[in-house]
Give the backbone structure.
Amino acid sequence: MTTDGNWFHWALLSACFAALTAIFAKVGIRGVDSDFATLIRTVIIVFVLAAFVGYTGKWADPRTLSPKTLLFLALSALATGASWVCYFRALQAGPASKVAPVDKFSVVLVAIFALIFLGERSTLREWIGIGLVTAGVVVLAIK
């Protein structure tokens, strides 16, 4: 489990891997249907994560999870799957240098959804940053 003190490092690593995802995927989907490519990617992720969880001794019986936890993990999985399908289709149709930043509009949506559904309050400084991300997406969207 991570602590509040190191969340930024994990988030930064996530951003680095997400950037590599865009580049590797853009090369990997050439001549392949984007939905099929998403399936291949997902199967690989399942095997790698299963090995990782097993190796680190973090495997637990999923039947011990509460129905609420299972529901929200299932909803998260469905949203992830839909995001990946859309992302790969966008990458197949457009340049990675534009697709990835527009995909990161999720940053803005997370802030809004976190406010509405989780009651998380961002500071003025944070909303300014979120506004700048929005402005960047708008600039990329203008033809």
